[in-house]
Amino acid sequence: MKTLSTALVGSCFTLALLVPGAMTFADQHEAETTEMHMEATFVTHRSTGHMESDDFIGATVKSTAEEDEDIGNVDKLLIDESGQITALVLSLGGFLGMGEKDIAIAWDSLDIAHEDDDLVIRVNATQDALENAPEYEGEE
């Protein structure tokens, strides 16, 4: 009988230790759930000064070091966790997908302007510098 009462007391003690943790977990889960269910805000049109990703994808990048010669076209945008564009990924060279090399150019290295309703992206780099740039390989 003594073994049974010792086991019962031990079980109650263990349960007493677990219950506060379970309540804390439940409270934490409720707080996280409440944060995730914030009211959505909607945008109905593009504001002046804002651009869409489609404005960049496929856009031609030109070299200011070589008299506005076309360098390549934008394939991807690299975006950080805060939503800021950090770089543009271009494909250089190649023919019909063969021999292409992807490079990523840092956002602050680019000059982006609108000319005659077209997006114009320029970078101060020669063709040689771009061809010798490290290849962008995507996810680490």
Layout of helices and strands, plus pairs?
Blueprint: H1 2-36, H2 53-56, E1 60-63, E2 69-79, E3 85-92, E4 101-106, E5 110-115, E6 118-123, H3 127-131
Parallel strand pairs: 1-6
Antiparallel strand pairs: 1-2, 2-3, 3-4, 5-6
Gross morphology is globular
What's the main sheet like?
6 strands, mixed
Mean pLDDT, to the nearest integer, reads 78
Number of discrete helical segments: 3
Oligomer: single chain
**What is the number of strand segments?**
6
- Beta-strand content estimate: 25-35%
Query: Strand pairing plus helix content: what structural class?
Result: alpha+beta
Question: Helix and strand string, N-terminal first?
Answer: HHEEEEEEH
How far is the N terminus from the C terminus?
A: 62 Å
Given as residue ranges, the uncertain stretches (5+ residues, pLDDT < 50) are 1-19
Please give the radius of gyration in angstroms. 28 Å
Walk across the major sheet and give the strand order: 4-3-2-1-6-5
Provide the helix percentage. Answer: 25-40%
What does this structure look like?
The chain is of the alpha+beta class and 140 residues long. It contains three helices and six strands. A six-stranded mixed beta sheet has the order 4-3-2-1-6-5. It is globular, with a radius of gyration of 28 Å. The N and C termini lie far apart (62 Å).
Keywords summarizing the entry:
3 helices, single chain, disordered N terminus, 6-stranded mixed sheet, 140 residues, alpha+beta
Quick structural overview:
The chain is α+β, with helices and mostly antiparallel strands. It contains three helices and six strands. A six-stranded mixed β-sheet has the order 4-3-2-1-6-5.
